[in-house]
Amino acid sequence: MVISIFVFFSVTLSHRRDVGGQEFGGMYCAILIVNSFVVSAAILQVFGQDIAELPLVATSNGNHGKGYFQTLFSCIERLLAFLKVKCLVLPAAEEAESIWTEKFGFERIKPDQLSSYRRSCCQMVTFKGTSMLQKTVPSCRVVGAPL
């Protein structure tokens, strides 16, 4: 079995970053490939060192429950830690909220904190019927660095 993980450093439909009033800078696509097939993917937007957002994730049919997204998510967390991003947020569908909170360590964002995020990151994605969740990004461990 061959497993590869790629992060594409620009997700835009054109070379312009500002399209129709929407700013697409700092948007990335991470994919996990197993035996030449994409099995899991995520869209990630980094708003700077304070916050990043994971608005969309997907795992292909037939590959649920195999830990592929957990592997991809772990790599995303390490990338964010390396970039010194402090917090990761995401919109969670009601039926998926318990997975995010119990399996991945997210918690609901308090209304005042969500208002603050929206003021500083007005391009955050929200979907009707979702709850906004957050998680502190674990610190990056550097090999050979003193603990």
UniProtKB/TrEMBL annotation:
Pfam families: IDM1_C. InterPro entries: Acyl_CoA_acyltransferase, IDM1_C. Coiled coil: none annotated. Signal peptide: none annotated. Residues 11-135 form the Increased DNA methylation 1 C-terminal domain. This is Increased DNA methylation 1 C-terminal domain-containing protein. It comes from Cucumis sativus.
